[in-house]
Amino acid sequence: MKVLVVGNGGREHAIVWKLLKSPKVEKVYCAPGNGGIQKDAECVDIAATDIEGLVHFAKETKVDLTVVGPEVPLLSGIVDRFEEEGLAIFGPRREAARIEGSKRFAKEFMKKYGIPTADFQSFTESSKAIEYIREKGAPIVIKADGLAAGKGVVVASTLEEAEKAVIKAMEEKVFGDAGQEIVIEEFLSGQEMSLMAFMDGKTVKPMVVAQDHKPVFDHDQGPNTGGMGAYSPVPQIPDEVVREAVETILLPVQKAFKEEGIEYKGVLYAGLMITASGPKVIEFNARFGDPETQVVLPRLKTDLVEIMEAVIDGKLSEQDIVWSDQAAVCVILASGGYPGSYQRGVPIQGLDKPAADTVIFHSGTVLSGEEWLTAGGRVLGVTAWGESIQEAQMRAYERVKQISFDNVHYRTDIAKKAL
Ligand code: AMP
Ligand code: GLY
């Protein structure tokens, strides 16, 4: 069969890589893809947001399955449009994807159905927001309501920092319309865990858990990014806690969607904080996480196409999903300056050396003739696996050290919390 993957990051590269392992797949297209994906799939020059262009391509090319990576097309209704045209597509419809698109919607949904999350209040006026912050005190968390590519959240340790974040979002509009409304949230402390699940509207099948590293510098210092690395499993979080999160969060979410008359099909991502009083939701995403997918998919033993078809057909309950016991670690190589401004078009060396049990997923590269150039904030995700986290980590960093480009930045402590 022919499969089309929509998106252009490391997550999409990992999805393409996994789909190519399926005996059912003869050809993978990626729209628009990137320099690295181009080596594995046929990249087509259609933006992930050009829904009519994608519908047209899928029909013309007789694509059998489309897989959506990023949230923006989901929230623009790509799944609804493909379904109208009778095209098979993996992902939630627009209405269901709102769980990611609006923090206020997600928070109110959780409140209504008793799903554990931080206390919160939403605001459309900065003066009221600042009043609330002064009343609650620091630490406190300020979030832009809409999509901000993972960068719309400030965990403020002082009142001053919190007030500055409100002004930046609401008055200086650094996140554009996404910050017109903000959510102010109670600060939660604990270990973070990313728990993703396949859902078909009836059944929930959790994936193996992972942990992301959001801040740009070692020891979780500096501003939040889209994610600087990930690992799976997360041994310091006991299995009972993961089971508790499934029971108190994923299953109730599935039930709540049903009660709302919304069929949620695709991947649901729960970003959780494991607090002293149990797991609580930090955010939901309506898609695979990035970079988590880069460590979770290498551990998947079952054919990803079979799982996706089962989700689309509403037959997930009949589908076995098997995971390997191996550990995987992904280290992101970013452009110096990210998540602020950075240079593009910088030549990358050392990509072509083969290494065992390692794969390099490209997040932001272009291929210019025979030369790889940087083309984004996150550039590469070096993923390695092994019998233990330690082994996978060692292997990943060994490979990282062979790659170079001007002003490269990566964290040197990915997976350290597990050791
Ligand atoms: P989000 O984009 O909502 O995932 O938030 C980005 C990061 O900010 C999370 O991964 C957490 O590290 C941190 N964060 C978000 N909400 C909270 C909270 N209520 N308490 C503590 N940290 C938080
Ligand atoms: N790694 C967090 C996300 O994908 O949103």
UniProtKB/TrEMBL annotation:
Cofactor(s) annotated in UniProt: Mg(2+); Mn(2+)
Entry annotated with the keyword Phosphoprotein: no
GO BP field: 'de novo' IMP biosynthetic process; purine nucleobase biosynthetic process
GO molecular function: ATP binding; metal ion binding; phosphoribosylamine-glycine ligase activity
Pathway as given in its UniProt record: Purine metabolism; IMP biosynthesis via de novo pathway; N(1)-(5-phospho-D-ribosyl)glycinamide from 5-phospho-alpha-D-ribose 1-diphosphate: step 2/2
Pfam families assigned to the protein according to its UniProt record, in alphabetical order: GARS_A, GARS_C, GARS_N
InterPro entries cross-referenced by the UniProt entry: ATP-grasp, ATP_grasp_subdomain_1, PreATP-grasp_dom_sf, PRibGlycinamid_synth_ATP-grasp, PRibGlycinamide_synth, PRibGlycinamide_synth_C-dom, PRibGlycinamide_synth_C_sf, PRibGlycinamide_synth_CS
Record flagged with keyword Cytoplasm: no
Cited PROSITE patterns: ATP_GRASP, GARS
Catalytic activity entry: 5-phospho-beta-D-ribosylamine + glycine + ATP = N(1)-(5-phospho-beta-D-ribosyl)glycinamide + ADP + phosphate + H(+)
Enzyme Commission number(s) of this protein: 6.3.4.13
Residue ranges of domain ATP-grasp in the record: 107-313
Keyword terms of this UniProt record: ATP-binding, Ligase, Manganese, Metal-binding, Nucleotide-binding, Purine biosynthesis
Family recorded in the similarity comment: Belongs to the GARS family.
HAMAP family: GARS
Name the UniProt record assigns to this protein: Phosphoribosylamine--glycine ligase
Phylogenetic lineage: Bacteria, Bacillati, Bacillota, Bacilli, Bacillales
Gene, per the UniProt record: purD
